Amino acid sequence: MERRLVVGLGNPGRRYEKTRHNAGFWVVDTLISRHRISVSEKPDAHVGSWMDHFPSDATRGTPDRYIEVVVVKPQTFMNRSGDVAFSLLHRFHLLPSHLIVVHDDLDLPCGKVRIKTKGHSGGHRGVASVIESLGSDQFQRIKIGIGPNPNQDAADYVLSPFSVDEIKQIIGAIARAADAIPLLLEGKIDAARRVCSALGSQS
Q1: Is 21 considered catalytic here?
Q2: Model pTM?
Q3: Helices 125-134 and 81-91: crossing angle, nearest 10°?
Q4: pLDDT in tens, 39-72
Q5: Cα separation, 104 vs 22, whole angstroms
Q6: Beta bridge partners of 4
Q7: Selected catalytic residue, list 21, 98, 103, 124
Q8: Sign of CA dihedral 86, 121, 97, 174
């Protein structure tokens, strides 16, 4: 059976759970809920060895009947997300191309969703951490637009909550991103992009 890794980026703890920077966590939570992937605070022994060194909320499930998926929300904070990604790829003998990273994007309008198959971090510290840890940028990303705010420092802005109007846009974006992940797992990139571009989103 093939295996893939899906990593949603964010910061752990109640202080950050409703902030813009945690959009990647929200997508993973939606994926887990939709596919009824059970969540346990104590992962099984097969996953436990790396959990001891790189704490994260991790679940294992099979959204696709032919592909086993390890779904992760790193608990190392954004700028050390690469530690978890590297450890898991090594643990399961996977390549960077077997990885999907889901994260917020400051440069995309709020509610837009875009798929990227490789390239630089675009200034996102979590993505930069993954690239540095893997020594490669050859992994897929699903980017959730949170919209720029020229009137606020970027570091403060990404750690602020969405407005009421933005929440409506983000809920749709999260749903489309979760729809796209099973398609990416099957290698259907064009179909995944069409899903992401629905309802006015850009791919």
Answers
A1: yes
A2: 0.87
A3: 40
A4: 544 443 333 333 434 456 666 665 555 678 888 8
A5: 7
A6: 69
A7: 21
A8: positive
